[in-house]
């Protein structure tokens, strides 16, 4: 009976973004072809080797398998093959007799034909040949040995030549490496005769010299397809059962948590196709940080054949937010359209300002259809991860140089500069007809920085954020064996993301410019560190005022070129040609240099986006009870301290005693608190200050 593993393995999708399976297969094939073509197949027979000693009566073997292998090798070198005939069993010794005979031994049994049935009349190769080797097992001083008790090498048929004996069924073996190659080519759509031809070319041998026949390849492919079909049937049943269980879990979760949301679709047979869900905390977080959403669709379940889509964001402390997730049956435009529609409905009709995705044509079309006012950016980190599989084989030693050129291309200042660099790079590496180069160029406005620089991405297009996403998703996919446990793990990960954690510490003041201290009071540590980095670098730039009141800002070594900074004093507005503020929400070094020149002690409020401010907090969205409890506790603390100081100030003895004992007690309490866990799932979002 065919069985399948219940382990639910999630892997990154490998299909080419153009949707063509053969793109991936052709790469795999080329890589393997290169390595295999360099190796000549070793002859299955070695007629020039020394003749083997013929078996003889009394010959000893350690096991019956050793005896069969020896006799088989002897038979091959002498133009025939053998098969196992009879064996005899005893309670004391187990199998103690073995008979090996020539493949033409005996006669084919007569078949009885039932009326109405038609059978092909195949001529049997059996002709009553009496060549044989009989073995007997004996235990000598506790050691088991097999002795040849009868041997005959007399045949009543012609023996085959070396080039013929290799084609006997006993010697026509398709080795594992060849099996994998055959299945790969078959999956790519190659017919059987083409597969055989490819194998011959790869091995560097003439036609008909493979150690197996074309019909062996055909039988192997057909048998494997049968096994795959049986596995597919079991997988289909498992998927249907587990998806129905997942749907039941969503319904149960909704009954206990009214703010939990989910939706699903069914096919014509009323089987669950797609399912999506989100949590109350996720919906609340989206109301604050909906400006940018990353829709990751890079993982697929091998067991269920489902694509996992995760809607992710970033909070004011630079941490990942899970807005929701979906399991999709495929990556067609229709599935993505449903996913986007469902997500926007979960989020009460609010569309993101920018959506960041992987490189996927179906997803692009769905976004253009459902989110026409949302700016779409394809992740450069996702593209860079594909470059090696796309170009390393064809470019070889030039691949490192190509990556450098591609990086410079990505950072091109303008669309014109991009096109110029592209027209130089493609012929430089001979990639004019490469399908992936054509694909990248057709999608340039979705990923090249010269086209997306003024799209707000909230620092989500960085390598650091991409690594955080990978780590977050890998925690979800650890050792999941069914959709139930997968759903539970998603919920656990979502709760962990929303729990308060020790925040990133503020950096020390570095420039002592007043606007640095002002920004430190407003921004979160994550945003302030990015701001401070730009402010420190601003000191290396020199502004030159132009006639119209704008500025050209240059690096003192001219390594960064020059930037045009437009200053509008009436509205206190500033615009830099680098568009860093539009891209990340953090003022750039060039704009900050002009503000310093203008003797600004504090920056205008518009340059501190609310999403980066300390007040933008995900802690206790709608539940004010914890904060009220903290306020009551703080008032009680203040009352006790006032009373203590009042009572201790009556006499010097009291005052000295309180100072001495209070210091000891506070030190003890502080040490005990520090030994406690940093988080118990409740947010302590308040600060202590001495009474006025």
TrEMBL record:
Family membership:
Belongs to the FHY3/FAR1 family.
- Superkingdom field: Eukaryota
Protein name, entry field: Protein FAR1-RELATED SEQUENCE
Coiled-coil zones? none
InterPro entries referenced in this protein's UniProt entry, alphabetically: FAR1_DNA_bnd_dom, FHY3/FAR1, HTH_FAR1-11-like, MULE_transposase_dom, Znf_PMZ, Znf_SWIM
Q: What does this protein do?
A: Putative transcription activator involved in regulating light control of development.
Q: Transmembrane segments in this chain: where?
A: none
Asked whether the UniProt record includes S-adenosyl-L-methionine among its keywords, one would answer: no
Q: Does the keyword Nucleus apply?
A: yes
What the entry lists under PROSITE patterns is as follows: ZF_SWIM (PS50966)
Keywords for this entry? Metal-binding, Nucleus, Zinc, Zinc-finger
Q: Where in the cell is it found?
A: Nucleus
* Boundaries of every SWIM-type domain copy: 564-599
